[in-house]
Amino acid sequence: MFNNRTKIKALLSTEPTGQEVIVMGWVRTFRNNQFIALNDGSSINNLQIVVELGLLDEATLKRITTGAALKVTGTLVPSLGKGQKAEVKASAIEILGDSDSEKYPLQPKKHSLEFLREIAHLRFRTSTFSAVFRIRHSLAFAIHQFFNEKGFVYLHTPIITSSDAEGAGEMFQVSTLPLENLPRTENGNIDFSQDFFGKSTNLTVSGQLEGELAATALGDIYTFGPTFRAENSNTTRHLAEFWMIEPEMAFYDIQDNMDLAEAFIQYLIRYVMDHNAEDLAFLDNRLKEEEKALPQAQRSEQGLLEKLQFVLDNRFERITYTEAIEVLLASPAYKKKKFKYEVKWGIDLQSEHERYLVEKHYKRPVIVTNYPKDIKAFYMRQNDDGKTVAAMDILAPGIGEIVGGSQREERLDKLQTRMQEMNVPVKEMEWYLDTRRFGSVPHAGFGLGFERMVLFVTGMSNIRDVIPFARTPKNCEF
Amino acid sequence: MFNNRTKIKALLSTEPTGQEVIVMGWVRTFRNNQFIALNDGSSINNLQIVVELGLLDEATLKRITTGAALKVTGTLVPSLGKGQKAEVKASAIEILGDSDSEKYPLQPKKHSLEFLREIAHLRFRTSTFSAVFRIRHSLAFAIHQFFNEKGFVYLHTPIITSSDAEGAGEMFQVSTLPLENLPRTENGNIDFSQDFFGKSTNLTVSGQLEGELAATALGDIYTFGPTFRAENSNTTRHLAEFWMIEPEMAFYDIQDNMDLAEAFIQYLIRYVMDHNAEDLAFLDNRLKEEEKALPQAQRSEQGLLEKLQFVLDNRFERITYTEAIEVLLASPAYKKKKFKYEVKWGIDLQSEHERYLVEKHYKRPVIVTNYPKDIKAFYMRQNDDGKTVAAMDILAPGIGEIVGGSQREERLDKLQTRMQEMNVPVKEMEWYLDTRRFGSVPHAGFGLGFERMVLFVTGMSNIRDVIPFARTPKNCEF
């Protein structure tokens, strides 16, 4: 057995009593030929290794460079340095892997996020990104734990699909046909019957419809999987490949749906605050430092930790779309013609409108319900007013839409009529309609964009920095 | 709030004291106009609803058909029937959704698995499939819990990739180019610079290489995501789209790797036995019934529960590939020429060989190590004998290979040489080689095929029956 190490996170919370320990990790810095800051990825904090004079020969000392991998045997003793309870007094150091400090791209200094994006394969080794990815892990685990505790079934909906029912945007085609020489039918069309699945297929944009099938049998289900949009959006909030969580619940109406979504988001934030306090403190400080360079007006009113605590302590504001439009029309921003896009009943809320509602007016997350039916999907439940549907979007400060959901139309006739009105291919979706034919029930669900949630919790500002390897237009590296 | 129901699973473990309850679910059967078996997907067990004479009018009674959805208000009282502790004496029944019993595809009788595969959107409503998918959920949760407890970071590796480094098989192409009219370069090739990512891209076959990048920074990571093979394999063990778990650990050698994999599999089995006892008992019984139709020789020696307990109680056998070949050559099966494929050192073990080792010879899971280097991937660590690599495959009874893993080659020169020998494009993989250039460490990992694990634990025999919507050649429905 090689791996008889103790992780640094564990050592740093152990009472140091001179016990023998083995640690392994990578050198962050080496000062005065005496103090090694060692990191193994388990914690934002480094472990200080003290190398006494004469322990190592000159040649070995020279190999202790930034990025080098070490195996250290020694004793865990109280530290005299500030900010750390324990350090290791080394009795033996083995160099597992050298790192040529001339060539190592990560120097012990601050690198820009843009530069680190170029070397995404190494950025896991920085404090910022190790914190981000540990928090991403915690959020993912908290999601599973939240739903598991409530008796939800985790459902893997298909990634490759032959339906484009959602109409949620541009899709990626999936094929095994030889592109250089595509087979054709007699009348000159591409012969998809020769494709792997015998038909044209795409990458999924949502697992919701399949989720409804399972929910109307198992009760409560959720998906958590990758989702795709082939949109040419080069923004700080869009990815071509991202992860989404889509719970779907039988016997839920839109109120139940809102209650669940709010409890869910608060649970996730609380979990990370409980389990990643040191990572959050680091990122909180990082954000403060970043914002020092900005003019006062562009700085956040709240620090990261303050913002998260605020979301825990305050209920989300719940307003209807109609109320949202009224608030916007009555706003100083509208009167001073500060909105670029038109404001009137029937519009799709633009980012500037959402930000005004959340950041200026209500100053907290807002749930907007009952949108005009014409700007929402066919499956949303029609309200009695004939104009709106039981949709709900959650808008978060600094992020905008983080959750989109609705009560689903469970009435077969109304659903069929709406599908026809919106040119959804009814015939290809008989399987979906079967849930309304046989024991149809009120049900609801929502989707949470995982990376947007990670952005919100880490305080990072570009979505490419919260996913290990971003896929965006013209960018598919690693 | 609509959803003020109590789930049937909770009610069935509650002491019945006449308390008022609300339950919602779907009718499985309705006997004598008096006893409704109601199921809400939370449990394999139905709740008995007792309808007293005169509670409902004739028209309503007729609407209580198999598949109909009900909201039942009543009192939870001790049951006189056998096999159930509690039942609900209804005070009000509301029909949430009708089900025309003439048209409902699921009748209260046994359907074949083949038929249910055709109506995969409804099979969640059967006892067998609800049990399978609850167990699938539990396995997924147990996977996250196992790694979270050990301080692993859950990593989402990319689904769309531009590299084919693994060479693990046929890949699905991903593109947004207009297939009807593909853009061409001046010399007539397809102009992938106009594609979404500016190059040719595919669906991932493994997240391992990206996993290594994160492991050599964060220490221990695991992936759990969809993986794709465009292989034209129509078998009971292959899917074109399946889920895989790939842990990758820094500072691990192959022994550490085997220890982790064995502990992992045992943890998963124990978790399901602890949390899904009723579902397992149902499937155990189902398997016994199925096998009654088979000749004695084809029946399993152990029942499902027996088999799972056996795996918990016994260590996995650990043998080298060379020992495996010796066992096969000395076997009665070999001497009687019962193997279809040749047996000699250097072959890739065939399914018949694996089954002999596991089911006939060792009668338990077997870990085979140190395979010939020429039948394994370039990244596996080369042993000192110059002939073998530090690979490890775990073979399970009835399933065959369930885990494939190895210690990785951490020595830059040896890795580069092997890549050249195997025609792996070294230049495109400089990012991968960087992990060996800067602080390289011994590390290892493995992949577990999730659906094969679900097969093993549920005792189902076709992999299409343990994933919600199977993707196989010429099949991409729902």
UniProtKB/TrEMBL annotation, chains A, B:
Its EC number is 6.1.1.22. One of its GO terms (cellular component) is cytoplasm. Its main location: cytoplasm. It is an enzyme of class 6 (ligase). It is found in: Cytoplasm. One of its GO terms (molecular function) is ATP binding. It catalyses: tRNA(Asn) + L-asparagine + ATP = L-asparaginyl-tRNA(Asn) + AMP + diphosphate + H(+). Keywords: Aminoacyl-tRNA synthetase, ATP-binding, Cytoplasm, Ligase, Nucleotide-binding, Protein biosynthesis. It comes from the Bacteria. Belongs to the class-II aminoacyl-tRNA synthetase family. This is Asparagine--tRNA ligase. It comes from Arachidicoccus rhizosphaerae.
